[in-house]
Amino acid sequence: MTLMNARHDASYKHLFSSPKVVRHLVEGFIPDEEIKRLDFSTLERMNASYVSEDLRSSTTTAS
Asked: Looking at the whole model, is its pTM more than 0.70?
């Protein structure tokens, strides 16, 4: 992972670590009638990383 990628990764992890910020982001993209169906009180922070299979394989071949 390059230094720039590591910085972006850390920034996104920080951004999405706040339920309040996540809620605001979701509210900006999801229609109001769908927002009413969501229960933001169930949001919880998870200390985990995930890399999709296609990204994982493209990262492996780039090395």
From this structure: no
Q: How many CA atoms lie within 13 A of 21 on its CB side?
A: 9
Q: For residue 4, what pLDDT band results from cuts at 50, 70 and 90?
A: low
Q: Is the dihedral of CA 13, 14, 20, 25 positive or negative?
A: negative
The maximal CA–CA distance of the chain, rounded, in angstroms, is 45
Neighbours of 21 (CB within 10 A): 12
Task: Name which residue leads in pLDDT, 19 or 48.
Answer: 19
Question: No. of H helices and E strands in the chain?
Answer: 4, 0
45 contact partners, CB below 8 Å, separation of at least 6: 17, 19
